[in-house]
Amino acid sequence: MLDEPFGALDALTRAHLQDELMRIVADTGSTVVMVTHDVDEAVLLSDRIVMMTNGPAATIGEILSVDLPRPRERLSMASNPRYLALRTEVLQFLYQKQLRAAA
Q: What is the pLDDT of residues 2-38, one digit of tens each?
């Protein structure tokens, strides 16, 4: 269980540690549950993204299956159409669906 493990790091250190986490998970087959508010981090690292509703009574809003091939190379993902579509789905949940739910 990781709660914002890379949140307070500079971008380069964050990227190196994300890559190391992906390597460890691939080598060990471990299951990792990670909390992050970083959309790109969620899409890059995840097999499944559980998006929560806002507020103290938060619930599961949507679950998004991340069907990107592994191993994931950060630079190739930046231009991968499926990566970009998944990123857009997360952003739409955060900025459009959450606004409608709050109204």
A: 999 999 999 999 999 999 999 999 999 999 999 999 9
pLDDT at 56: 86
Q: Which of 5, 102, 7 is nearest to 57 (CA)?
A: 102
Integer Cα distance of 65 and 75 in angstroms: 21
What is the phi/psi pair of residue 60, to 5°? -70, 120
Residue in the block written with tokens 């890059």: 44
Helix (H) or strand (E) holding 92: helix 81-92
Neighbours of 64 (CB within 10 A): 16
Phi-psi region of 20 (alpha: psi -120 to 50; beta: other; left: phi over 0): alpha
